[in-house]
Every structure is written in structure tokens, then in C-alpha cells.
């Protein structure tokens, strides 16, 4: 990295690399599987939001789930008849997701309609328009800068010939209020899991020429987790 690069770009790279490092660990992948691959009430509400956002995406569609984490969405996407590509930056997450899928479905080999692979959301190896839908779940709240969010959105848009389903942390919730109050009391600036106003995200969408055609809060006014259906302009 050149010393002449802008400071804000250096900070963005630091945030990005820190996120990659934190999640690319075997113990984190194992903990995620134990906590996330259980159909809790919260996980059920999140899946219901994703299902609403996927309305109109027919059985047989090619769907990318990135980051797939420990693979909690894959059996659910399979039940909708999709051809699923589960991908993650972390090789540990990919391996855990693959194992979790095989064990939950009692199979020894992956079926033809399911594949797991390592990919970087900032620069994927997929062809333009390879997927009918791209799901980017629980990632953008780890990116505190517009540059990182926009690059991730731009790359997801590139590989989708259809829609994007993303999640972000909305300021329109009690949880977000508590979050900001905590950091204000500590006189610190948060850099992870930061709730933002929709108008801030709208600027990101405008920058990459995407439009929101559906909004699905997990628990309106309580939880910051909100899902959006995005389409090309």
C-alpha cells in the first residue's frame, strides 16, 4: 500500500481487513454454527424477511448467499428449490457451512444444486449476471464507511442479473438508540455494527445505481436489523 494514498482509504482498508481477520478463525466458525444454525425466534423472523424479499424468485433460480457464515440459510434456500452457491471470505466458515449442510441433510456428498466456495465480496470470481438473486446477509453493518459499503454493493450488483437482498442496521430502533448513547457516554466513535439512517444508505444505493423496492424490518422499532430488496435502476 503506497504512503501517498488518502488517509480515509487507509482507514477503510483497515476496517475491511479487521473484519476479515475477526471472522476467519476456526473457533469463530464453530461458535457461529452453535449459535446461528438453530431456528430461534430471531432467526425465524430474519428468514421470514428474506422470504418476503425473495418474492417472485422462482424455483430453479441461481441464488448466491454471501457471506454464508456457518450456512444457516442453505437448507432454507434449498427448500425453495433454488440452486445455491454459498460463499464466504473465511475458509473456516465455508468448511463449517459445508459440514453443517451435509450433516443436517444426512448426505455424504453435495447434490448438484448446492455448492460451497471461498469468495471475497469486494472482488468475486463470478461472471457478470451469473445469479438470479444475491443475498448479502449481516455484512454491511460491519462496514462503517460509504466506500466499503458501496464496493460490496457494486460487486453484488455486478454478479446478479436479478435482485439483491441485503441487511443493514437501521437507526430507527430502540436498540440503535442504546448503541449510540453507550458510545456517546464513553466519548468513543463506533466502527463496527453501527446503525445508520436509511438516507445514508440511500446515498450508497444512488452511488451504485440501485433502488429499494421493499423494506422488511425484523422487529420494527425494536431491532436495528432490516432487510431490503434492491433492483437496478
UniProtKB/TrEMBL annotation:
GO annotation terms (biological process): methylation
Keywords recorded for this protein, A-Z: Methyltransferase, Transferase
UniProt keyword Amino-acid biosynthesis, yes or no: no
Coiled-coil boundaries: none
Pfam families: Methyltransf_11
Domain of life: Bacteria
Single GO MF descriptor: S-adenosylmethionine-dependent methyltransferase activity
The keyword Methyltransferase is assigned to this record: yes
Domain (Methyltransferase type): residue spans on this chain: 64-161
Listed name of the protein: Class I SAM-dependent methyltransferase
Native organism: Candidatus Accumulibacter affinis
Amino acid at each position: 500500500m503506497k504512503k501517498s494514498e488518502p488517509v480515509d482509504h487507509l482507514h477503510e482498508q483497515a476496517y475491511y481487513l479487521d473484519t476479515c481477520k475477526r471472522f476467519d478463525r476456526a473457533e469463530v466458525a464453530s461458535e457461529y454454527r452453535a449459535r446461528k444454525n438453530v431456528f430461534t425466534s430471531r432467526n425465524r423472523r430474519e428468514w421470514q424477511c428474506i422470504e418476503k424479499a425473495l418474492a417472485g424468485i422462482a424455483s430453479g433460480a441461481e441464488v448466491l448467499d454471501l457471506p454464508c457464515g456457518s450456512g444457516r440459510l442453505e437448507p432454507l434456500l434449498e427448500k425453495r428449490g433454488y440452486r445455491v452457491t454459498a460463499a464466504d471470505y473465511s475458509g473456516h466458515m465455508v468448511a463449517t457451512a459445508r459440514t453443517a449442510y451435509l450433516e443436517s441433510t444426512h448426505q455424504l456428498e453435495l447434490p448438484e444444486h448446492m455448492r460451497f466456495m471461498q469468495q471475497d465480496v469486494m472482488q468475486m470470481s463470478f461472471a457478470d449476471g451469473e445469479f438470479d438473486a444475491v443475498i448479502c446477509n449481516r455484512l454491511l453493518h460491519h462496514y462503517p464507511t460509504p466506500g466499503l459499503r458501496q464496493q460490496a454493493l457494486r460487486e453484488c450488483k455486478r454478479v446478479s442479473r436479478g435482485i439483491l437482498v441485503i441487511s443493514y442496521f437501521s437507526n430507527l430502533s430502540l436498540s440503535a438508540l442504546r448503541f449510540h448513547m453507550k458510545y456517546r457516554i464513553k466519548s468513543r466513535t463506533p466502527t463496527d455494527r453501527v446503525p445508520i439512517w436509511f438516507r445514508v444508505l440511500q446515498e450508497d444505493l444512488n452511488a451504485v445505481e440501485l433502488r429499494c423496492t421493499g423494506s422488511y424490518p425484523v422487529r420494527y422499532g425494536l431491532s436495528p436489523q432490516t432487510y431490503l430488496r434492491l433492483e437496478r435502476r
